[in-house]
Write a structure and sequence with these properties.
Structural class: alpha+beta
Number of helices: 4
Shape: globular
Distance between the termini: 56 Å
Oligomer: single chain
Radius of gyration: 17 Å
Order of helices and strands: HHHEEEEEH
Largest sheet: 5 strands, antiparallel
Strand order of the largest sheet: 1-2-3-4-5
Amino acid sequence: MAGTRKSTYEGFTAEERAAMKDHAAEQKKAARRGSAAEKAAEAERDVLAKIAELEGSDRVLAERVHALVTAAAPTLAPRLWYGMPAYALDGKVLCFFQSAAKFKARYATLGFNDAAQLDEGAMWPTAFALTEVTPEVEARITELVKRAVG
């Protein structure tokens, strides 16, 4: 009887598969020998190179997010996470930028993982749609990042 049922599962999208491959490559690269300072410098270069590869508004948004996050929380370590810029504390990714183009989405995303502990009551957002960086958005990003670092 196996194989006679119709499945609605269509597997991962090409974008999701690419992100997983990026993540595997990032893990292999991080496991290589070298000093912590060398690895940190290389990780930051990788983030800046990835941002430079982005096109149009994704690049503008990523550049601004990078500047805001690194200014608000210099203790966060820039690194790639699933092929996108991310910022970690003690090895755990607190926040990340996700371009609209990579996942064919309507907007870029600024996301926070549970390590950020942005808890507010019984329900709170962990990802924010990002279409432009206005002074109000800059202030909100800065406030969220500072809260996430604690």
